Amino acid sequence: MTLSNSQAAWRQRCLENWGLPRRVDLMRLARGGQGLSGAFAVNRLDRLSEDLAQSIEHTSLPGLDDKGVVWFEVSASARTGRRNTAVLKVQSVLGLTCQRCMQTLWLEVDEQAVFELFGSESQMQSALASEEIEPDGPEPLLVDGPLDLVQLIEDQLILAVPFVPKHEDCQAAKTEAGEPIQTPERQSPFKVLGQLKGDPK
Questions:
Q1: Each residue of 133-153: pLDDT tens digit?
Q2: CA 177 to chain centre
Q3: pLDDT digits over 40-56, tens only?
Q4: Cα angle vertex 23, ends 17, 26, to 5°?
Q5: Contacts of 86 (CB under 8 A, 6+ apart)
Q6: Structural domain boundaries in the chain
């Protein structure tokens, strides 16, 4: 990814808060129209790291284009007469294993998700039952207390990863006998999360 001036400035701002983000009260942020940003090493995400071919453990602040870094920003806002919303922006470069050549595939992730905030499970279920939530609208998010922002970020990265990652142009890996290597089929956490969220990937 070639960084524009605005992207570089955004990542630099994220770097000022290096380390795993704390739990955050999105409702409080929404009432104040506030947000927060930060960055951390991708190998701090246990569920995601299980399926990564490469991750980089940073012992010091990384550069603006380093692989293995997660850059994020969440902003929340209140809307008169409507539910509060939050926007999550996530960028990273993830090292996956290409399922054709079995070499590392570097996947550039640049995701943005919009959420509609619900203060209780009953409110969210009522909105779902009455079809108040638009299929193509913001995703419903339960925030009945401080939210685990790490989990929310990890979910977005998992959804961005293809179930069968492959280079656009590469040769199939072969055994010493010249036979194509067969990769075992398994139930990936990426696919499971996608199914839970209605994603066909």
A1: 777 789 999 999 999 999 999
A2: 40
A3: 999 889 888 886 766 55
A4: 100
A5: 26, 29, 30, 74, 75, 76, 77, 114, 115, 117, 141
A6: 5-196
Centroid of chain to Cα 22: 16
Q: Could you give the C-alpha distances from 19 to 40, 44, 66, 70, 76, in angstroms and in order?
A: 5, 9, 15, 10, 21
Q: Determine the Cα–Cα distance for residues 123 and 132; give it in Å rounded to an integer.
A: 11
Sorting pLDDT into bands at 50, 70 and 90, what band is 108? very high
Residue 164 CB partners (closer than 8 Å, separation 6+) = 99
The token duo for 56 is 């980089």
The values of phi and psi at residue 197, to 5°, are: -95, 5
Residues 124-134 have a mean pLDDT of 83
Q: Is residue 183's pLDDT more than 70?
A: no
- Residue 112: pLDDT band (50, 70, 90) is very high
61 close to 68: Cβ distance less than 8 angstroms: no
Q: Rounded to an integer, what distance in angstroms lies between the CA atom of residue 183 and that of residue 100? A: 9
Tokens 């079995």 belong to residue: 102
The model's pTM is 0.80
